[in-house]
Amino acid sequence: MRAMVLALLLCGLMMLPLAALAESPSIPAESKLIPMEELEFQLLQEFPAQASESGGDVGIMATGSWGAQTVGPTIYTTGYPYYGPVFSAPASTPSNAATRTIYWDWNVLNYRSDLKVWLCNVTWDACDEVSHSSIGGTNVFHGLSATHNYQFVFGIPGNGSAIYPYVYGQQNSIIVNWEN
Length: 180
Hints:
Blueprint: H1 2-22, E1 63-71, E2 74-77, E3 82-83, E4 98-105, E5 108-109, E6 116-121, E7 126-129, E8 135-138, E9 150-155, E10 162-169, E11 171-179
Antiparallel strand pairs: 1-11, 2-10, 3-9, 4-8, 4-11, 5-10, 6-7, 6-9
């Protein structure tokens, strides 16, 4: 009997915080706490399309990103392009995903002020010069497929003469933000 009274008392004390929360002015009266096992989740594809201000269906837009790291090349001479390894999108990137913004980070040892660096879309053979900052972002590839490959290209203007000390490529990375 004593155990039953104690159990009822404990149950009443455990319910007290829930009742206090329900009466709290910060939570509307119609709100109620639902145990996690009773929650129902919907898959993203099952959400109804949203109506735009013009009355048409907008649908659901997915966003994501992928990133990759490589080590850059060593530069020995002027006048030649030095191609870094290719950054490839993972197979999980949706085929209809479009690039929004690309963030980059390139690094070298023995930096020279005449070093030129380009971030290139290998698939389209188009490049954006990013020499001005070793860390940054660009929208120049906006709208291109997020499954495209990219790489850094390094070079020092000149006539093919040897340089010393060499410019050693270090860790380089990109992050491709996409939407579909």
